Amino acid sequence: MSRIGRLLSGCCVALALCPPAAAGSGSASGDWAHAPYELGQGLQYPEQDLNLGGYLSVRYWDVEQLPNSLSVKDLSLFISKGFGARWSVFSELEIGDAITVSSDRVDTSDAEFELERLYADYRASQGLSLRLGKFLTPVGRWNLIHADPLVWTVSRPLTTAVGFARQATGAMFYGALPLGRNSLDYSLFLDSTKELDTGQQEETAYEHFNPTLTVNGAFDRAVGGRLVYHLFDGRFDLGLSLLQYRMHDLREDKHLVGADLFWRTSMLELSGEAIYRGSSGDTESDEKGGFLQAVVPLPGHFNAIGRYERYDAAIETSTTTVQVLGLTYRPRPPLSFKLEYRDGKYNERIAPSGWLGSVAVLF
Question: What radius of gyration, in Å, describes the C-alpha atoms of the chain?
């Protein structure tokens, strides 16, 4: 993590600890009274416009060519604070792979503290806001809601992670515009990770698939945007993403075009994404791929999930196909128990076949 990142993350922790300090300094105790707690909504202090939340994910892996393991995959703390009607600050502090239990050992050597997100928002109007700091790259739908309690499967599609950096550091304009009975969301961002967040350049593209692959997955610099058209009261969304960027350790500039869709009814949820990544020269291979995922609600808070994906990775000579069949139990929306089987063709290296499971809670 960069020196600036350490400093800012320390400030966030201090902010999280300030309620008792403030209460003991003579402030009215009511100023720090929190609202009734509800799982998944965080601990809210209305008088301070402060919210403390986060999520925990425990994951089980039993896939080919990798040791079986049970790990505390993610332990994340969310801190959000408002400053008047226009300014707010948000941070996500995470400990990844805090504890890993395999067949022969209990290991904490892979534990890593990460500043996943840290940004300030300025709301100029309903249709225009400015974000400054480190945020999730606005490409597709999955990357923006990737936390384990919020997605249906343990594994994420290759399409959503390896062709671009998952985080960006810089500035972003965003907002929502009404279009009759529908609406249009937009995001326009400028990234300078190389200058602003040197620690992020350790990000690996296949971290969520095969941790032994060390292909770098961070931006040096980037510019891009995303549009999402919402129809039928948010039950149907169409998205378009465009990026121009340089990846760390790659020799050529890249350009990416992405499209995504989301459709939900009482009997089915259908989603999908596709990307194409090209290069400014002929030295490095293009990447392209896409997936389609269906979720069917079952009795008793169970959900059946099926996903099919095709992906042409630059590090592979053949097209990888991946199929996922899963079952997710959500007794309450913030709590999920997941089990899935992943298989495919030419997937041995980048998305090995096998069983995956997780228990995740948003608190």
Answer: 21
Domain range enclosing 339: 3-362
Question: What would the pLDDT profile of 71-114 be if each residue is shown by its tens digit?
Answer: 888 899 999 999 999 999 999 999 887 788 877 777 777 778 88
The C-alpha atoms of residue 313 and residue 136 are separated, in whole angstroms, by 22
- Do 34 and 320 meet the contact criterion of CB atoms below 8 Å apart? no
- Give residue 336's identity as a one-letter amino acid code: S
Burial call 232-252: b when 16+ CB within 10 Å, e when fewer: eeeebbebebebebbbbebee
Tokens 């999908």 correspond to: 272
Q: Whole-angstrom Cα distance, residue 99 to residue 112?
A: 10
| CA–centroid distance for 28 within its chain | 38
Number of domains the chain is built from: 1
What percent of the chain stands above pLDDT 70? 91
Q: Are strands 87-96 and 69-83 parallel, antiparallel or unpaired?
A: antiparallel
